[in-house]
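With this grant's support, we have settled on a layout for protein records. One resulting record is reproduced below.
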Amino acid sequence: MKKIFTLKIKKQNKGFTLIETLVAVMIFTSSVLALIAILSTSLSTIVNTKQKVIGTYLAQEGIEYIRNMRDSYVIYEKDDTGWASFKDKISLCITPNYCGIDNLKPPRQSNSLFQCTTATPSIPSTCQLYIKDGNYNIKTGGSVDSGFTRKIEAEPIPGTDDEIKIISTVSWVSGSSPKSISFSENLF
């Protein structure tokens, strides 16, 4: 009698078990969450940087406007009273007072420089800047609050009648923390 040997081959399951699948899903999910966290931080950094750049330009614009005002008074006065006229105009802004500028008006126009009022919960500061057509200025028709406030201060330099320190400060809120940037320049 002949014996036939048969081999019994056990069929192996080549698929994933439930635990292996859950571990793979967990690894994938944590990778996606890490990527989302990095993107969120990057977007926040971009917004903060954009606000800082805009604030820097607005503060520098304040200095440039006052410098232009000084130059306009000194150059275009008929006699040698230009510096005195400029000092008279900028006296509105002597610390602790501060001023705003209407950069759509010529620097020598009477209401181009004005003393700011302090903000209250219901009324914004008159130094609040609004944006219309890409331009930042005081409120005009159809403009939207930019979130920036610009204050111009003047400090006479002790011991001299021919020098004034101009400080341009721009403030805004980034997230929940207030931010500001200041530029100063001594004008002669």
Notes: The helical segments are 18-76, 82-90. The two ends are 124 Å apart (CA to CA). DSSP finds two helices and seven strands in the chain.
